[in-house]
Design goal:
It is built from 10 helices and 12 strands. The chain has 240 residues and is an alpha/beta fold.
């Protein structure tokens, strides 16, 4: 049964709006007809829409549906959004892949989202370390173009996780310009590539745990955008 909500002070609306800053893998916001349509209905917790036909469509798929007023949808949506449809979704459980991208303090939500999307395209999982933007913020989710629903994403303290990854057979490769760095190359087997923060690179604690470091040979500029560098490293390491 489709329920109606017209007040922005409705407890469910206030609870849902809080996900704009406090989203987790158990509950986060996803906007846009295409991305929601591509999401497994089993991963959709509830639907909010101003469109009666969309409400009926998602109710027929077994979703809990709320037809809401424009001001209620605006309360839930991101800045400058024109979406007619917002969903609260949960992360689809996936197995940790053999290739990983570790984010060490990546603060820009757009960069984090782009990296998640690119990692998914190349078959890598993503681990968001301390100081990295919450991968379930709406701006990050939008930047993934829906990929976050199917990609492997976890949050962890890298200094605690990396030793466990080593025990599990992962080669730990940092991105850095140091005297021992080698040009990025394909790796076989389990590999974790680390991208450090936009301004400072890897932290000393994380850098000390690397088995090797890679650099990207470039000309004419000193550095690349973090998301661009991550994409190149993932492409090379994965051997695509």
């Amino acid at each position: 049964m489709i329920k109606n909500i017209t007040s922005v002070k409705n407890p469910l609306i206030m609870q849902t709006a809080a996900l704009k800053t406090d989203g987790t893998e158990r509950e986060f916001l996803l906007e846009g007809d295409k991305f929601i349509n591509d999401t497994d209905p089993q991963d959709i917790i509830r639907i909010f829409s101003t469109d009666s036909e969309l409400c009926e469509l998602y109710e027929s798929r077994g979703c809990e549906v709320f037809e809401v007023s424009e001001n209620v949808l605006s309360k839930l949506s991101g800045e400058n959004s024109r979406s007619r449809l917002i969903a609260v979704v949960k992360k689809h459980e996936t197995k940790r892949p053999e290739k990983l991208l570790l984010l060490d303090g990546i603060q820009d939500p757009g960069n984090v989202g782009t990296m998640i999307r690119t990692a998914f395209a190349f078959g890598l999982g993503v681990v968001c370390g301390n100081g990295t933007a919450n991968p379930y913020l709406p701006k990050v989710v939008r930047s993934t173009a829906g990929a976050i629903c199917r990609a492997y994403v976890e949050k962890a303290d890298l200094t605690s996780l990396i030793p466990l990854l080593k025990q599990d057979g992962y080669l730990i490769c940092g991105s850095a310009l140091d005297e021992n760095a080698r040009a990025a190359e394909r790796t076989d087997g389990k590999t974790a590539v680390i991208i450090g923060s936009e301004g400072k690179g890897m932290s000393k604690e994380v850098s000390a745990l690397c088995d090797r470091t890679y650099y990207i040979p470039i000309n004419n500029v000193e550095s690349l955008n973090a998301a661009v560098a991550a994409g190149i490293l993932m492409y090379v390491v994965s051997g695509k």
